[in-house]
Design a protein that fits this description.
The structure holds two protein chains of two kinds. Chain A is mostly helical. Chain A has one domain. Chain A has a two-stranded antiparallel sheet with strand order 1-2. In chain A, a hairpin with a 4-residue loop joins strand 1 and strand 2. Chain A starts with 5 loop residues before the first helix and ends in an 8-residue tail after the last helix. The longest helix of chain B has 42 residues. Chain B starts with 11 loop residues before the first helix and ends with a helix. Chain B is mainly α. Chain B has one domain. Classes of the chains: A mainly alpha, B mainly alpha. At the A-B interface, helix 3, helix 4, helix 9 and helix 10 of A face helix 1, helix 3 and helix 4 of B.
Chain lengths: 282, 139
């Protein structure tokens, strides 16, 4: 395992952290392709990435939570499902060969992008009465939107569907060492009908605990290299800090557009690598 | 600030809002403190490594121990300044980073149980805490 320069790694990590915070996806989705380009084995890259995802998530979530946008109960309910998924996912990665992991990474990126692309922007009725299960789960809330200068109250929907879907998002997170924030946001948004900012920030909170569950498996297997993880973590947190400051000043619309562009570029990059057009490939 | 002491004339809605706000502060500051402590340790370790060797290269793996062994090992090293080296600080940075979401879950559970007396969410967070504790004991 050789790394060209920890300095370059540090800069790459700043960019990854920034994109991770802005999109709610976590930094891993940029970090893993970059680390493998620098010659790190994909399983080691996944292990380093998932540790750094804890840092991105916690750093950004600390600000979002104190702002009162994150829905803690929604997050804590769904974490029950994501941690189990992450443990299973990480276990599968350890048993797998490298090639399926590259393919899975590209596929998840494209899937995330495709799903967001076909999605219609709607001004949903966030106060539609919830089903009895979701009401029992207390998945409602409200926050003051500084960009729109108004209070936004909402009722979460279909908690019974969101939970099991989150097992899948956790599985992807543990499998690929990413936050899988795009999938989590999608579930919070489409299945549970939460406003975009609540989805993004709550996803960020869930990502940290999910990444910890995945990390525990990679640590037990001896895949975490602290010397390599250290510059990555510092870079990712610095990037996330900048991203968080910026996110607070943007409206929902601009978050979404940024999201789409980032996913499209990364998806294209992974397809090209999958076909061996550039990069080390598999 | 004692979150359990509510004024006698407080309405249920206001109590809920106040508890939610308390919890947001608790979780928010735990996450903030955890990340800052972790970054500080990692930063000290990396700078020290650079000063010692002129390079940031420091490759080794955490092997043969579970997370709690790793954490205890690092804490013991912290209290023996004679043996300090860059690795001690980098290990402490990693250990405290992993501890951050863990302690967030545990303290949320305590908050739900004591301040909010919400048995549902006490059980949910206890489940998450138990699974994490188990998986962090794996080696």
């Amino acid at each position: 395992m050789s790394i060209t320069s920890p300095g370059i790694l540090f800069v790459v990590s700043i960019v990854a952290g920034f994109i991770g915070a802005m999109s709610g996806m976590g930094g891993g989705i940029v970090l893993i392709p970059a680390l493998t380009l620098f010659g790190v084995g994909i399983k080691h890259a996944i292990a380093i990435s998932i540790v750094s995802v804890i840092a991105t998530s916690s750093g950004a979530a600390s600000a979002y939570v104190r702002d009162g946008v994150t829905n803690l109960k929604v997050g804590m309910f769904l974490e029950m499902f994501t941690i189990l998924g992450a443990i299973v996912g990480a276990t599968v990665t350890l048993a797998s060969s490298d090639q399926p992991l590259f393919i899975a990474f590209g596929a998840v990126l494209l899937l995330s992008w495709g799903t967001l692309f076909v999605r219609k922007l709607k001004h949903a009725d966030y106060l539609k009465p919830a089903d009895p299960v979701t009401r029992w789960l207390e998945l409602r809330g409200g926050y003051f939107d500084h960009a729109e200068n108004q209070q936004i109250d909402y009722e979460g929907q279909r908690g019974w569907l969101g939970g099991p879907c989150m097992f899948g998002a956790g599985f992807i997170a543990g499998l690929l060492g990413i936050g899988a924030g795009a999938l989590k946001v999608l579930i919070l948004d489409l299945a549970m009908g939460l406003p975009p900012k609540v989805s993004t920030t709550t996803s960020n909170l869930i990502i940290g605990v999910t990444a910890l569950a995945g990390t525990s498996i990679y640590i037990a297997a001896g895949y975490v290299d602290p010397g390599l993880a250290a510059p990555v973590i510092i870079g990712v947190v610095a990037g996330a800090f900048i991203g968080t400051r910026l996110l607070k000043r943007l409206s929902n619309q601009s978050i979404r557009q940024f999201f789409l562009v980032v996913l499209l570029l990364l998806g294209l990059e992974m397809i090209l690598r999958g076909f061996g057009v550039f990069g080390h490939g598999v | 600030m004692n979150p359990t002491s509510s004024p006698p004339d407080e309405t249920t809605a206001r109590r809920e809002a106040r508890l939610e706000h308390d919890m947001e502060l608790l979780v928010g500051y735990i996450l903030l403190a955890g990340v800052l402590v972790s970054i500080a340790f990692l930063f000290i370790g990396l700078v020290w490594q650079y000063v010692l060797t002129g390079s940031l290269h420091l490759n080794y793996l955490i092997a043969g121990m579970n997370y709690f062994d790793f954490l205890l090992h690092d804490l013991r090293a912290l209290f023996h300044p004679a043996g300090w080296d860059p690795r001690v600080f980098i290990d402490l940075g990693i250990a405290s980073l992993l501890f951050t979401p863990y302690i967030r879950v545990v303290s949320s559970m305590v908050f739900f149980a004591t301040a909010e007396r919400n048995w549902k969410y006490t059980a949910f967070t206890a489940f998450v805490g138990a699974v994490l504790t188990y998986s962090l004991f794996l080696r």
